[in-house]
Specification:
The structure is a homodimer of 299-residue chains. With 299 residues, chain A is α/β, with parallel strands linked by helices. Chain A has 2 domains: 163 residues, 3-Layer(aba) Sandwich (Rossmann fold); 122 residues, N-(1-d-carboxylethyl)-l-norvaline Dehydrogenase, domain 2 (Orthogonal Bundle). In chain A, helix 9 crosses helix 12. The radius of gyration of chain A is 20 Å and the shape is globular.
């Protein structure tokens, strides 16, 4: 387990691949539409390959960090995909946030080839990826999890085995629906207060010492909404996708999902208004624009 | 400022009045439909009076900890109310969560009598009231706030002056709408996970180390939903009232309040189903009953 493939060296993937290199792994990455991270990783010692099949033929573990279900499916099942090049025993560690239903379906196909798929979604954002402190949840066969644990420990902390394939993704979608709901609720609370003439910096200080306190309020809102800095972190378009996946899951289960459904509508609206490339916390702009208030502290 | 009146010695008020006694204040309380807390406080050294007017005539500060707008209005303006007995200079510290619009209206009437009303809502629940660690937000004239600060310091920590009358209540309603939205979002996330076969204790552990972490998740859900212990704390019926007040405020301001409105509907439904005396976190039962899952850990 010393040769690791890494496919998807974007916002999250690049620092994860860099941490694997620092930990002494041989890392083979795929060319990417954005050449800059590929060049930086090659300069740091990574090798470069042309197709997922080529990567799979040279490695024991292939990590994926990809934007959506379709891309993950293409990278695994496509003509030059991982299954076309991988040997028996290969473990695919998919850190992408995709549908647990998709992941379960892919896991069966992968298993028929004598390989293993693990769903290993992340929490902690780009900051956590850079620091190597990501929380990682893992679903799939436990033996495969134990084999790749040293690899996961090079990129994260709080590494938890959840259960069978797809279960880690269910927990991840739960995490993100809570975060998205918090972002909306905080935006409403800040807007109510600002409309009543109260500085949002003061509101933030009080709520951070009260029962409304949360990671989103204390860390995220302080660094973004209060400063008017909505560059991503975690893009609104990705949060829209994740909350949509949670809603799909609820529908498939027959679970009522009132707040998930509403939050999905609001993120759909924000996406339609061109806010997809803001950080997901930028949902607050819907409230600023509808009321004319400025949610930055000290304004 | 050594003689303090206290009206409303219920779940929150009783431990607050007890902490005032411990801090050396003379405390005069009102008889209450539930005699037990009155008897306990008298045994601890409190004096007892028959009407708010009688309390006001003997004290410099009267603290209120009452369930709703109508009761606060009656206690202040009623035939034997505070205004009927109080002297000029009396300060009323209303720790009740009521409408900021009501508090502003009452503050004007109180000021016409040469007295002062402060809105001083609390955060921290019964645990915080007992420990004397409540967060207290204060709205109203700043000079009056400075005069009663030693009284507030006997019952809480994190005491913050917010601004003019009603502003502290606006922040408090913001706090509670966030908390209520979190309770619903967490219930949906736990139900999705449990339906997928994942133990809620494990989900809770993972989310508590991830970006979804919050006081509600880490402290409240752990002590209640996961143990199946929904005795209040903070009653669902009171949360229903508070989210309704936030919705009224949003309507009066012309602020969109999507999540506040939805959460209010869910709490209205839970109230109608007879869950008003559960803790507010008991909104989770709506999901358990609709899906047949048991959200307790280890089940």
């Amino acid at each position: 387990m010393k040769r690791i493939g890494f496919i998807g060296v974007g916002t999250m993937g690049e620092p994860m691949a860099a941490n694997l290199l620092k930990a002494g792994f041989t890392v083979i990455i795929l060319g990417h539409r954005n050449p800059a991270p590929v060049e930086r990783l090659v300069a740091a010692g990574a090798q470069k390959a042309q197709t997922p099949a080529e990567i799979a033929s040279q490695t024991d573990v292939v990590m994926l960090c990809l934007p959506n279900d379709a891309v993950v499916e293409e990278v695994i099942l496509g003509a030059n995909g991982i299954l076309a090049g991988g040997r028996e025993g290969l473990i695919i560690v998919d850190t992408s946030t995709i549908s647990p239903l998709t992941s379960q379906r892919l896991a069966k196909i992968v298993a028929e080839k004598g390989m293993t798929l693990l769903d290993a979604p992340l929490s902690g954002g780009q900051t956590g990826a850079i620091a190597g402190t990501l929380a990682i949840m893992v679903g799939g066969p436990r033996e495969a999890f134990e084999k790749v644990r040293p690899v996961l420990e090079a990129v994260g902390k709080n590494i938890t085995y959840v259960g069978e394939n797809g279960t880690a993704l269910v927990v991840k979608l739960g995490n993100n629906l809570i975060v998205a709901a918090e972002a909306v609720a905080i935006a409403e609370a800040l807007t109510l207060a600002k409309k009543a003439g109260i500085d949002t910096g003061l509101v933030h200080k009080i709520l951070s010492a009260a029962t409304a306190r949360s990671w989103i309020l204390e860390e995220k809102v302080a660094a973004s909404v209060l400063k008017g800095d909505l560059k991503p972190g975690f893009k609104l378009s990705l949060m829209h996708k994740d909350v949509g996946l949670a809603l799909d899951l609820a529908k498939a289960q027959g679970t009522p999902a009132f707040i998930t459904a509403l939050v999905h509508q609001l993120y759909t609206q924000a996406l339609g208004l061109g806010k997809g490339d803001l950080d997901s916390i930028g949902i607050s702009q819907l409230y600023e624009e509808a009321t004319g208030v400025d949610l930055r502290a000290g304004n």
